[in-house]
Design a protein that fits this description.
globular; 15 helices; alpha/beta; seven-stranded mixed beta sheet
Length: about 425
């Protein structure tokens, strides 16, 4: 037993030693929890909130000698990650700490006054993936709004953007298309860490526009992170923030196919071992599709033909029932910085329309238009595209806000 324990300890030391980036939670702890000193603390987190030895931020703050953890708040998937995507999270008591846990993914996404009444400061520590339709940044934003309204301090324990800090893609969300998958007027890929995004939302008056005043915000920065770093370069351990983001590169592929996944027509790798890496359907010829996709010579993107049977049932996707073979392409990102990740799926739609002009792609599930448009942040992408199924008809609109956002958001950069 002693030998096994020694191996575990040595493994933890080796894990920490491999990291070149120190997350905000470690900076907080190494600084003696000064920003939380004497405070009653609430914590918004999930299993991805860890230090470089895989210790949960829940336990780190609960053991802090100079503050008291009094409440936990669970976003989508819950504090301990025991809820499936889209499932409501219920109020409970954390079995390890005995701390009351409130749901932010059930009756409300935003903490109510009752949820915040016993705390002095609300801390946020979740690994995000830098994409607007991934809901954790929205959870952070509404928590900031609630803290501003209730006069509570808000602290972000910063973490890397796994896409790095330079990739910005997509238009801003437009009036009429705000939702929890497009909560604020930011591009689809926004090139900011959670701490930087919090400073942007606060500094640009977005939080005060919702709450009536700014949030009392503190960001605990990382140490060692630079904007050109993808997650692997940090040496930090990856804990999947949600079930379909099993590794850091899954965050790269999420914007590659996540938008058309809302149409419920194609298999994008959900239900198989390659989430968000596939474009497939039962009626597609994989070899022809791969040939035509590669003929586009998209910068930084390659494709190979693939024929698979999804492992589990996704009855809400037309061609993803268990045991039914689908055919298509697997996407490879060969040059991340050169690739336009989000537009890749629209090139796929363009080629599929050329190969199968009689397949009415957008008419199969018209009830899904509303969610598709919300993820896009506008109806203009869909309406312009379906006229001819040509990416050239949406490129200018899709790109129109990205450079201006990079310039505007750069004043909130914490890292070079």
């Amino acid at each position: 037993m002693k030998k096994i324990f020694a191996i575990i300890v040595m493994g933890a030391v080796a894990l920490a030693a491999s990291a070149v980036v120190k997350p905000g939670v470690e900076v907080l702890r190494d600084g003696g929890f000064k920003v939380l000193e004497g405070k009653r603390v609430g914590l918004v987190t999930n299993p991805s909130g860890i230090d470089n030895n895989l210790k949960s931020t829940v336990d780190i703050i609960n053991e802090a000698p100079n503050c008291k953890l009094v409440a936990l708040y669970g976003p989508e998937h819950g504090v301990r990650g025991n809820a499936h995507a889209g499932d409501a999270v219920t109020d409970a008591v954390d079995p390890k700490t005995g701390v009351k846990t409130y749901s932010l993914y059930g009756k409300t996404h935003k903490p109510t006054p009752e949820m915040l009444k016993d705390i002095d400061v609300l801390v946020y520590d979740i690994q995000d993936i830098g994409c607007r339709s991934y809901t954790f940044y929205a959870t952070m934003g509404v928590c900031m709004e609630a803290c501003a309204e209730q006069g509570k301090k808000f602290v972000v324990l910063d973490r890397p953007n796994p896409l790095g800090g330079n990739k910005v893609e997509g238009n801003l969300v437009e009036e009429g298309y705000f939702s929890f998958v497009s909560k604020y007027a930011i591009p689809y890929l926004y090139g900011l860490t959670p701490g930087e995004l919090a400073q942007y939302l606060n500094g640009e008056g977005i939080i005060s526009a919702k709450a009536g005043k700014k949030c009392d915000l503190t960001v605990i920065p990382m140490e060692g992170w630079t904007r050109d770093m993808k997650f692997r370069a940090t040496g930090m351990p990856w804990v999947l923030p949600s079930p379909q983001i099993p590794n850091p590169e899954s965050a790269w592929f999420y914007p590659v196919s996540g938008v058309i996944g809302e149409l419920y027509i194609f298999n994008t790798g959900i239900g198989y071992t390659l989430p968000f890496e596939l474009f497939a359907a039962s009626w597609i010829d994989a070899d022809k599709l791969a040939e035509r996709m590669n003929a586009l010579n998209l910068p930084g993107i390659k494709f190979r033909p693939i024929n698979v049977k999804p492992f589990y049932d996704l009855s809400w996707v037309v061609d993803a029932e268990k045991g039914k073979e689908v055919h298509g392409v697997q996407t490879y990102i060969t040059d991340f910085d050169a690739a336009n990740l989000t537009l890749t799926q629209f090139y796929f739609l363009q080629v599929v329309h050329e190969l199968y002009p009689n397949v009415t792609l957008f008419d199969q599930n018209p009830k899904r238009f509303a969610m598709f448009d919300k993820v896009c942040g506008t109806n203009q992408i869909r309406e312009r595209f379906i006229k001819r199924y040509k990416v050239e008809d949406i490129v200018d609109y899709f790109n129109k806000d990205a450079e201006a956002f990079k310039i505007k958001s750069s004043k909130y950069y914490i890292y070079k």
